[in-house]
Amino acid sequence: MDQRCVTLVRDEFRDCVQRTLVRLQGEPTSMPFHEALLSREAIFWSRFERSFSTSFGQRVIERISAYIAQYSGAENVITQKQTLVSLDSSQFAAIENNIHIARSNTAGHLPNWDNEVNYIRSLPLSQRIDTQRVISDLYFVRNGQANYFSIKTVKPNIDQTAEAKRDLLKLKLADQNSNVYFGLYYNPFGEGRELYRWTPPMKIFDFRRDPCVLIGRDYWDTLGGRGTYDTVLEIAQSVSHELQQLVRQYGNDTL
């Protein structure tokens, strides 16, 4: 990974930890029932984890992802990219019907990205063109191809997932040469995507087989090339070593 990118990613991780400590200083600390039932150490680390999760939100992942794409050869890297998508009105209607069928599990529907895209593309057209706006969390061009990412929490709800698929279908149908992705930046259930088992969004995507779904290593390595996932984790670990004493000192002062 480019050293300039390493520095930017490290700065983002460091800022997350530091913002967590600042936020904790401003929060109320009296929790009498927790203190009666748990050790003060357990309460501190629980508060720290919750506050860190607030700091380490989607915007941080978007910025880190954008840095990695930019410094690995991508062009025109944009977060929160707005795209005006023009399609035949029958295609927009078919997309809505696809989402409705998936959510209601009509007739035992099983998601299959390639089949769904090909089916909608094959439908007769009404010759009426509509235009809708799509916002992508991350966009860039690489090797002449547009790449659109919808980045979600690692346990997305069905509404978030359905909205993402709706947007990705629109983008793919408008530009069949583009790459569109539904990205989760890590897998809370293990290394391989076959281990992913958060069921609420599984009506919408086949998380184990759909090529547009990227989880964990696949997400980061798609952004920056093979080995990017491991490098990002190594950067996070280096920041941990750097700031451990600061966090421990804050914890000691609090307890």
Which helices and strands appear, and what pairs or packs with what?
Elements: H1 3-25, H2 32-37, H3 40-55, H4 58-70, E1 75-88, H5 89-104, H6 113-122, E2 129-142, E3 145-152, H7 158-174, E4 179-184, E5 213-215, H8 217-224, H9 228-254
Parallel strand pairs: 3-4, 4-5
Antiparallel strand pairs: 1-2, 2-3
Helix pairs in contact: 1-3, 1-4, 1-9, 5-7, 8-9
Protein architecture, described:
With 255 residues, the protein is an alpha/beta fold. The chain has 2 domains: 1-69 and 240-255, no CATH class; 73-224, type ii restriction endonuclease, domain 2 (3-Layer(aba) Sandwich), CATH 3.40.1560. The protein is 53% helix and 18% strand. It is built from 9 helices and 5 strands; from the N terminus they run ααααβααββαββαα. The protein has helices at residues 3-25, 32-37, 40-55, 58-70, 89-104, 113-122, 158-174, 217-224, 228-254, and strands spanning 75-88, 129-142, 145-152, 179-184, 213-215. A hairpin with a 2-residue loop joins strand 2 (129-142) and strand 3 (145-152). The radius of gyration is 21 Å and the shape is globular. The model has no long low-confidence stretch (mean pLDDT 90).
